[in-house]
Amino acid sequence: MKRPITLISYCLFALIGAHISYAQSSDYGLKHYNLKRGLAIQGYDPVAYFTENKAVEGSEKISHSAEGVTYYFSSAKNRQLFIANPKQYEPQYGGYCAYAMADGDKVRIDPETFKIVDGKLYLFYNFRFTNTLKSWNKDEANLLPKANTQWGKIVSGG
Q1: Does residue 20 sit within a domain?
Q2: Which of 87, 138, 151, 156 lies 20 to 30 Å from 95, alpha-carbon distance?
Q3: pLDDT at site 27
Q4: Same domain for 111 and 77?
C-alpha cells in the first residue's frame, strides 16, 4: 500500500514542479503579457534592472521584437545581452504586478518600482499613495509562492 502512495506523491510533486517552471517561462500567449501596443515594460530597458540596478528608459531606436513583444534598450550592449538570453531578463508574470499576482490579479505596474529576487525581475504597482513593493517586502516569503501558483493557473487556463 505504501508504494502506490509514494508513487502518487512523487508524480504530484513532479507535476507541480513542471507547472511552476512553465509558469515562469515566457512561452505563454501574448494575452498574458502586460503590453501597450506590443511594447513591454512601458519602454524601459529590461537588462538595465540587472546591470545598473535601476530602471532606465530604453530607446525606440534600440529595440528588439520577439513573438510579438517589443523591448526597448538603453544601449546596443544591453540589446545584445537580451538577445543572447531573453529569459534571464524578461519580467516575471508577464510584466504584471507581483504583489497583485499573489491574488491572481493582473495589475499594471510602475516600471520604476521593481525588485530582483534570485536573479528574476519582479515589477510592482506604485500609484496614488500605494506602493505594493513595500507590502511585498513585508511578506515576500509567503507572497512569492502564492504569486507563482496563481500565475501558473492563469497561463494554464485553470
Answers
A1: no
A2: 138
A3: 53
A4: no
Cβ–Cβ < 8 Å for 129, 1: no
Whether 96 and 75 share a structural domain: no
Containing structural domain, residue 151: 91-158
DSSP lists the bridge partners of residue 114 as: 123
Q: Find all residues with CB under 8 Å of 100, minimum gap 6, and list them.
A: 106, 107, 125, 132
pLDDT in tens, 33-66: 999 989 999 999 999 999 999 999 999 999 999 8
Q: Which of 71, 90, 109 is the last residue of a domain?
A: 90
pLDDT in tens, 95-143: 999 999 999 999 999 999 999 999 999 999 999 999 999 999 999 999 9
Instruction: Evaluate whether 136 touches 103 at the Cβ level (below 8 Å).
Output: no
Helix and strand element counts for the chain (H, E): 7, 8
Provide the 10 A C-beta neighbour count for residue 112: 14
Can you give the pTM of this predicted structure? 0.81
Average pLDDT, the chain: 86
- State the Cα–Cα distance between residues 62 and 79, nearest whole angstrom: 7
Question: Pseudo-torsion of CA 45, 130, 107, 141, nearest 10°?
Answer: 80
